[in-house]
Amino acid sequence: MDTTQLLKGVLDLAVLAVLREEDGYGYDILRRLRSAGLEEVGDASVYGTLRRLFQAGMLTTYVVPSEAGPHRKYYALNAAGRTQLSASSKVWRGFAQTMDQLIGETA
Q1: Closest C-alpha among 104, 26, 33, 103 to residue 70
Q2: What is the rounded distance in angstroms from the CA atom of residue 32 to the CA atom of residue 27?
Q3: How far apart, in whole angstroms, are the C-alpha atoms of residue 74 and residue 7?
Q4: pTM for this structure?
Q5: If pLDDT is split at 50, 70 and 90, which confidence band does 3 have?
Q6: Is residue 106 scored above 60 in pLDDT?
Q7: Residue 29 has pLDDT above 70, yes or no
Q8: Which of these, 42, 63, 2, 55, lies nearest to 14 by C-alpha position?
Q9: Which conformational region is residue 57 in: left (phi greater than 0), alpha (psi within -120 to 50 degrees), or beta?
Q10: What's the longest Cα–Cα distance across the chain?
Q11: Whole-angstrom Cα distance, residue 2 to residue 77?
Q12: CB-based burial of residue 37 (10 Å sphere; 0-12 exposed, 13-18 middle, 19+ buried)?
């Protein structure tokens, strides 16, 4: 199965989940996703998702100066993002449970 297709459907949820506990800048978020097991997630996909979630009003941003390079744009989950994370998590759990049942029947 091509996991890149699965990632497209859940990347919003994964990014929101990564930002639940701690704000992060683009590369940091990408690194955290990969460390969590989503090794195949692409740079452009994550940056595009961050822009889209910000434009949809689910994230806020702020800039932190850096002495060792360019300033970093941090993303933070806001109230709308937390609401979306909760709703999407419920949908995901229901979907995953259904798939587990289907797979169990054929295994």
Answers
A1: 26
A2: 9
A3: 23
A4: 0.89
A5: confident
A6: no
A7: yes
A8: 42
A9: left
A10: 57
A11: 29
A12: exposed
> How would residue 82 be classed by pLDDT, with cut points 50, 70 and 90?
very high
Report residue 89: phi and psi, to 5°.
-65, -40
Residue 25 has pLDDT above 90, yes or no: yes
Type of residue at 103: I
φ/ψ of 50, rounded to 5, equals -60, -45
Helix segments in the chain, DSSP class H: 3-19, 26-35, 43-55, 79-106
- What one-letter code names the amino acid at 15? V
Distance of CA 72 to the CA centre of its chain: 18
Cβ-based neighbours of 47, under 8 Å, separated by 6 or more:
26
SS3 38: coil
Please state the rounded mean pLDDT for residues 27-43.
95
- How far apart CA 37 and CA 90 sit, in angstroms, is 21
